[in-house]
Write a structure and sequence with these properties.
- With 374 residues, the protein is an alpha+beta fold.
- Helices cover 34% and strands 27% of the residues.
- It contains 10 helices and 20 strands.
- Bound molecules: zinc ion.
- The site of zinc ion (ZN) has 6 residues, from helix 4.
């Protein structure tokens, strides 16, 4: 039986094990123990070497119904800062932090749901398809654990990413592409009072560039942001170096390209105008996806929802997740609700009732996939 209290206890246990991105080893070892207690062997891949973290992705395999497609279940083990020394506060089914850290429900809620589902499947001998369970590292720092997976070793034909929001029944089946942009503007340092005419002000050049760039919501499919600016050392020095970092996202590759080009050209133009130099680093962070409603991975999740009396709805997400990477590698992946709200803030909360409902939803989904095969 899926029990809200057991889920709440396990969630509180796991959020108290610090696991900021790159430092997931301790929580991952605990997950390996928990899987072993359930009766499932698991092993780490070599993602630690590729991501520079202290731990790889934890991978487990479970045979299932003959003829059924292999299903990947995923949640990420890392959390954002401030995320050390988390003290969960329980009020009924609602859990919050003490207000000084995030709660870590992104994505320990997903981890706990997967554990609850695996425990239930094995304890009750419930039908399920063959499963590949992947607890990824370094999701928050650029989906780096999912990028480091060896896809030759995975046989999954579809994936459920347990890394969603509060509202039950919501299936996120689309997400944008994104680019990260870094501009380093190099002017010339000079004494600001004695010989300012010998200097070139990199802050002024960067500012001129930024004012040329449309930011925020560009259109219904596209967003852009300048999120970091660092430059200068003292008020009496014309600043030589200014570093600017931003991003652009879109569900449409052409619009994304146009926005990225616009940002790069603004910096090139402003550097020219001020006699500064600019070096740009423009990198794709992830590629957009849209899994149609009639694809098995979406269809089964919607049918399971209906079976439980929850109105299913597909939704377009605004962010990147490991689902982007699975889709890029040809594994159709959707994201399921897991119960957190206000993630990445100290006001984050998780509703354990939603976690329990999500676990039941996933069990029903797996049951449908297995029964269709047999
Ligand atoms: Zn997440």
């Amino acid at each position: 039986m899926i029990d809200v209290h057991a889920i709440c206890d396990e969630f509180c246990e796991l959020v108290q094990i610090d696991s900021p991105s790159g430092e997931e080893a301790e929580v991952a070892r605990r997950l390996q123990e928990k899987l072993a207690e359930i009766g499932i062997e698991s092993e780490f891949d070599d993602a630690a070497a590729k991501t520079g973290g202290n731990c790889g992705n934890l991978i487990a395999r479970l045979p299932g119904a003959k003829g059924a497609p292999t299903v990947l279940l995923n949640a990420h083990t890392d959390t954002v800062e401030p995320g050390r020394g988390i003290k969960p506060q329980v009020d009924g089914a609602l859990v919050t932090s003490d207000g000084t850290t995030v709660l870590g429900g992104d994505d320990k809620s997903g981890v706990v749901i997967i554990l609850a589902v695996l425990r239930e499947l094995l304890a009750e001998g419930l039908p399920h398809p063959p499963l590949e369970v992947v607890f990824t590292v370094a999701e928050e720092t650029g989906l780096n654990g999912a990028k480091a997976l060896d896809y030759e070793q995975l046989h999954a034909e579809m994936a459920y990413v347990l890394d969603g929001g509060r509202e039950m029944g919501v299936i996120t089946n689309a997400a944008p592409s994104a680019f990260g942009l870094t501009f380093e503007v190099k002017g010339i340092a000079a004494h600001a009072g004695v010989c300012p005419e010998e200097g070139i002000n990199s802050i002024q050049a960067a500012a001129a560039a930024i004012t040329q760039i449309p930011l925020g919501r560009i259109d219904s499919e596209t967003t852009a942001n300048i999120g970091v600016i660092k430059g200068g050392n003292a008020t009496n020095i014309v600043p030589e170096l200014t570093l600017v970092r931003g991003e652009a996202r879109s569900h449409d590759e052409e619009k994304l390209r146009a926005q990225v080009d616009c940002m790069a050209q603004a910096f090139a133009g402003a550097a020219d105008e001020y006699g500064a130099e600019v070096s740009s680093k423009i990198e794709r962070s992830y590629t957009c996806f849209h899994v149609p409603d009639d694809k098995p991975v979406t269809r089964y999740a919607m049918r399971a929802s209906e079976q439980l009396g929850i109105e299913p709805q597909t939704e377009t997400g605004g962010g990147g997740s490991d689902a982007n990477i699975f889709n890029e590698h040809g594994i159709p992946a959707v994201i399921m609700a897991t119960g957190p709200a206000d993630v990445h803030t100290v006001n984050e909360s998780v509703d354990c009732a939603v976690m329990a409902a999500s676990a039941r939803w996933l069990l029903a989904t797996l049951g449908l996939i297995a029964s269709d095969a047999g």
